[in-house]
Amino acid sequence: MESSIPQIIVILLVGFLAGTICRVCRIPILPGYVLAGTIIGPSGMRLIGPGNQIEWLAEIGVVFLLFAIGIELSLEELRRSWRQCLSIGTIQVGFCLLVVAVLCRLLGFEIGTAIVVAMSVAVSSTVIVFRALTEWGYTAHPAGRRAIGILLFQDAAILPIMMWSAAIQRHGVGASSFAISAILLTIPLILAIPLLRLVVAHWIVPRLGRLRSTEIAVLFALLVLTTFGYVSHLLNLPVALGALAAGLVLNGNRMTKQLDALALPFRETFGAIFFISLGAYLNLDKLHEVTLGTLILCLLCLPAKAASLVVALRWSGLPWRSAVGLGAALLQMGELSFLLLWNGRQSGIVSGGLYNALMLVAVATLMATPILVYWGFRLVRGSVLEGQPNRRPGGESQLRKVVLIGAGPMGGHIAAYLETLGMDVCLIDQSPVNLQPFAQQGFRTICGDGRDTDVLQRAEILDATMVVVCVPDDSVATAIVKTARQLNPQATIIARCRYQSHRIALERAGANCIIVEEIEAAWAVQRFLQGL
Predict the structure, then answer these.
(1) Cβ of 399: how many Cβ atoms within 10 Å?
(2) Residue 404: pLDDT above 90?
(3) How far apart are CA 2 and CA 8, in angstroms?
(4) What is the pLDDT of residues 477-489, one digit of tens each?
(5) Which of 284, 322, 350, 383 has the fewest other C-beta atoms within 10 Å?
(6) Are 458 and 484 in contact, with CB atoms under 8 Å apart?
(7) Distance of CA 10 to CAs 37, 282, 389, 506, Å?
(8) Pairing state of beta strands 424-429 and 492-497?
(9) Is 429 helix (H, G, I), strand (E, B) or coil?
(10) Element (H, E) at 493
């Protein structure tokens, strides 16, 4: 353990620098970690390498990654749209698996290699795409629901391949029987999840809530996580599968967000170590040894995935323009792709040259994701979706549109009241946690800064009859009002103001009605005293 400390320090330092650079440059953080691992790996500075002594930390990173996926996975959303999820997901994953696997076989790869490669290509990034859908306000959009359905199916479909790969790593290439037995052993584990969710939600969580102790909540989450991991180990299943089951058990109750937030530091820290260790397996010195077949495969796998996405989305009823745009947003290879390739590399299913080439493809797709998402979602926004609600044949909205900035307690009450009046409310907030309950209720939500012109345009402020600004900072509220007035001179703007001294600035910015909390509080006290 003591000899591992210098490597841990190096990895944490490099991870901190890589994460900071990625945030400043506004690019996904995962490829930054992988590239950082490559820099300090055997093909770079040789500070760490494959077989280093901190791989046990990387294994913990895998556990927390799947625990986070389980705790964030919406089983309610899956229950509501399971038919569409199953149909679209089967077409997309099946089409991509078939095409990429056939290409692998034609180019001389083994059947096991073909399956692992095809599945790693077929999977998209759930974390990145879901965050993009939230930022663009598409979680409740017909296109967004189709994207979520595909992502849920991909995450479910990759689990048997991961289990098979782990069985081969333990028992050798002829371990198909072990893989089949492992998959059969998961059936009782899967059947126990709904029952345990009910027990946790209706019996344990209320009692934990009454204790009001963060430490006990953390200990309970870690207890569930380690118990499921140990049970998976006893059943000869991957420990990461138990972590996923633990996340599903803790999902869907009032403490889910709190437990997710408490697990976030562990997940981010060990996740960074895992992805940096992935990069250490990249050997850029041997890229010249990549065969012609591997190069052709890498050039063709992404067009095959793009075609599978467009075909599945077009089959679901989206117009061609929306199908192409959403397909571009889902084109990247996901975090589970890295995990599957890593398992394949360790078990010998994926050779070193193929691993290096596919990892570079995965990193490149993640680096290009912000551009693809921006271009793709603009195509989706510019097209008229079939079956989009609240539309007249002429294209005008049946409901008056309201843009509400600030989804805090006050903004939430106002949004609920406006909806009862029959208005089409779109909420904007910088916190996805604040927006999630409204998205689940069917509101249009956009995660972003209300001062940003592009964010307001995504909320369709040009068509809004009313803009309500409920942010607690008066200077931010003034900037939002000014931007909103420039974009829509005709809209009625109602602004929240904390202090009377800031009222004039809001009036000059263009607010029609200003509610000053300082005055309202004074009036409330005065009315109370008069009633005594």
Answers:
(1) 15
(2) yes
(3) 10
(4) 999 999 999 999 9
(5) 284
(6) no
(7) 10, 18, 53, 50
(8) unpaired
(9) strand
(10) strand 492-497
User: Which of 283, 257, 462 is CA-nearest to residue 357?
Assistant: 283
* 307-348 pLDDT per residue, tens: 999 999 999 888 888 889 899 999 988 878 887 888 788 778
| 115 Cβ contact partners less than 8 Å away, ≥ 6 residues apart | 97, 101, 161, 164
pLDDT of residue 352: 78
Q: What is the DSSP letter of 116?
A: H
Query: How does DSSP classify residue 349?
Result: S
Q: How confident is the model at residue 467 (pLDDT cuts 50, 70, 90)?
A: very high
132 exposed, middle or buried (CB, 10 Å; 0-12, 13-18, 19+)? buried
SS3 8: helix
CA distance 508 to 6: 58
Looking at the predicted structure, is the pLDDT value of residue 108 above 70? yes
User: Which residues are within 8 A (CB) of 460 and not within 5 positions of it... i.e. 6 or more apart?
Assistant: 401, 403, 426
CA distance 259 to 200: 13
As a whole number, mean pLDDT of residues 270-283 equals 75
**Parallel/antiparallel/unpaired status of strands 492-497 and 513-516:** parallel
How many Å apart are CA 243 and CA 323, to the nearest integer?
A: 34
Please determine, for residue 403, whether its predicted confidence score (pLDDT) is greater than 90. Answer: yes
**Token match 């089949």: residue?**
180
Looking at the chain, the number of H-run helices and the number of E-run strands are 23, 6
Write down all domains in the chain, each with its CATH number in brackets. Answer: 2-44+54-381 (1.20.1530.20), 401-530 (3.40.50.720)
pLDDT band of 306, cuts 50, 70, 90? very high
